[in-house]
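[job 4471] stage=fold_predict status=RUNNING
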Amino acid sequence: MINVIIAGVGGQGTVLAAKVLAVAAAARGWNVRTAETIGMAQRGGSVVSHIRIGNNGEDIHAPLVTKGSANLIIAFEPGEAARAISYLARSGTIVMATTPIEPVSATLSVADYNVGDIVENIQLALYNAMVRNITQETGAGGGQARLFTVDDRSLTDMLGGNRKVLNSIMIAEAVRAGCLPFTEDELCAAIGVCVKPQYADMNLQAVRLALTA
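[job 4471] inference complete, writing structure tokens
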């Protein structure tokens, strides 16, 4: 079973990314369920997609990933990674884009929206969780959660600055990190099914760039 959370804000393409993963999994004959939990019904609000994949032949009866059981969190924005961290399993992985989208609450606040602080806090949370696991299990930590950061701004700049391909970049980065069992050809085939023809080529370019950069 592979439990995936995709977290971002409205307009980043998180729902489309979930659909691409679902199509890629279904093409392998695997059972897959997806669901979205959407905060504000407008651009800029938090959007979380749940994807559950029965890669070992499991039947999936519920679409929502429970807290502490996500093998993978794909975060399109640092603050959303921090918001979703409670879903992460003990030995799970966060693949996180580093470009921030400052929320309205930060704009109104005197405090800075500091990506470096967010990354440090996530790393500290993962470390503390590892220590608790070792303490509770007398040395058997069961694996350590990992954080992979993605310089998504540099990648999109290589593609002419088009931020609409962020979803394809982040899925490919999760594959490159060894967190998803799909090949480049499988991702490209799923994108061909899910993306409108006029946008397909640039998404395919984004996948290939992320896998080889």
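[job 4471] summary: Residues 115-136 form the longest helix (22 residues).
[job 4471] exit 0
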